[in-house]
Specification:
Strand content: 15-25%
Number of helices: 14
Helix content: 40-55%
Structural class: alpha+beta
Distance between the termini: 22 Å
Shape: globular
């Protein structure tokens, strides 16, 4: 019902943004014909062909070594340079700039017009009393030392929390620390650290139905982002101790392990398992990618689920709730963590033609984007490498991933930045309806 209401009521701002988007799109289509006539069609074909050749060149550069890699990379760059030189030679480079500006207007105004249609329903917040005996685990090395830089330990203790500061020189079992804290009467668990550490303690909190608190002291803080927390100042997350609300969110599970963000199979998982990856990421990736992409290294994967079947993909990402759709691969962020489904992203590219086809985005045959309640990943080996919330692990095959709906109570500050809103996909029928609507 909420979506129907949004489609029948529009603001003047929406209507004028839709009109500007359509006007700019028409201008972008008509202008080349007016300026260059039928010659513009040939130039458009050359431009598209150039993008295709460059995409193929990049595939060869990533999947080959030695002189072939160098030549392929040079080809990808040279083709684009040649296309630009062609437009300069015929005196129409200015037209390229104008068209880019027009399409920028189309996207900006189109997204603005459709923004209200994309407003997600706010997660249900539960007002609960503040915890009486919160227990927080903090990693002083996480995020380049954010625990010390923002004085998180001292601020948390001033709010009545018991803080366990991890010792990097003596690794500890954070899940065991959490269990011991619960046995001693803790009524909230929290972590200031990376998402991998968060997931280990989350599993304990969910098992005992105890609220969990995220402190955004990691490096990328993907989990904190998708909870709408402040990633710039992790100390603001401590407000949840005194003025917080609870959310109920889903958790992913791979085998017997919980994940809060995603698990990856294939290329990424194989590369991060290399001992050399941590010391020299770029060179390790370039050295290993040719064998991974051509199936000479690693397992040959098979992915199955309700409505999902991918044979021999190079990479598979299974996420706790689907990622947003405001970029070609949909890996920006997750608008909701309570939809009750896994997100599935698979990439299968076996040759340069399929690599070029990836320019079509989600319409490409090499890209699978889906949702499911359960995904099974099998392989031609008894064990497969997996990246679980950024941690390099191995699992016996077949590997089963499931979603556990509403499995975790998360306590967050009542006042927080909120989850970034995704850009709407340009729906031309909806834009037309908005443009023709009257206030």
């Amino acid at each position: 019902m909420g979506g129907d209401v949004g489609r029948h009521h529009s603001s003047a701002t929406q209507r004028w943004a839709a009109r500007l988007a359509i006007a700019a799109a028409v201008a972008a289509l008509v202008l080349p014909l007016v300026v260059a006539g039928l010659k513009s069609l040939g130039l458009a074909a050359v431009t598209l062909a150039g993008f295709g050749v460059s995409a193929a060149g990049l595939w060869w550069a990533l999947s080959r070594r030695g002189p072939v890699r160098v030549l392929a990379a040079a080809l990808a760059v040279a083709v684009q340079a040649a296309v630009i030189a062609l437009f300069v030679a015929v005196g129409l480079f200015w037209l390229v700039i104008v068209l880019l500006l027009l399409w920028a207007v189309v996207c900006f105004e189109g997204w603005a017009a459709l923004a209200e249609d994309r407003r997600p329903a706010a997660p249900v917040e539960h007002r609960t009393p503040p915890p009486e005996r919160p227990y927080l685990i903090m990693n002083p090395r996480s995020g380049g030392g954010k625990v010390g830089r923002f004085g998180l330990k001292e601020k948390a203790e001033a709010l009545g929390a018991q803080v366990a500061l991890l010792d990097p020189a003596h690794p500890q079992d954070v899940a065991e620390l959490a269990r011991n804290a619960l046995a001693n009467g803790a009524d909230l668990l929290g972590v200031a650290g990376g998402d991998g550490t968060q997931a280990l303690v989350v599993s304990v909190a969910a098992e005992h139905d105890i609220p969990f608190m995220v402190i955004s002291a990691g490096t990328r803080n993907h989990f904190a982002l998708d909870l709408g927390l402040d990633r710039e100042d992790p100390s603001t997350c401590l407000d949840a101790l005194t003025d917080g609300v609870e959310l109920r969110i889903d958790l992913g599970r791979i085998g017997e392990r919980t994940f809060v963000n995603n698990v990856s199979f294939g290329a990424y998982a194989e590369v991060v398992q290399s001992p050399a990856y941590r010391d020299d990421k770029l060179h390790t990736i370039l050295r290993m990618l040719p064998d991974v992409l051509t199936h000479h290294l690693g397992s040959r994967l098979m992915v199955h689920g309700a409505g999902v079947s991918i044979d021999s993909p190079q990479a598979v990402l299974v996420s706790n709730n689907p990622y947003s759709t405001d970029d070609p691969a949909g890996l920006g962020h997750r608008e909701r963590l309570d939809t009750g489904v896994l997100g599935v992203l698979g990439i299968k590219v076996d040759n340069a033609v399929q690599a070029a086809e990836l320019l079509r985005g989600r319409r490409s045959s090499g890209l699978t984007v889906a949702t499911a309640h359960e995904i099974v990943v099998d392989a031609d080996e008894p064990e497969v490498e997996v990246g679980v919330d950024g941690e390099a692990l191995s699992f016996p095959t077949p590997v089963r991933c499931v979603i556990n709906p509403q499995a975790l109570r998360v306590r967050v500050p009542r006042r927080r930045p909120g989850v970034p809103r995704s850009r709407a996909r340009l729906d031309w029928r909806r834009l037309r309806d908005l443009a023709l609507a009257h206030g």
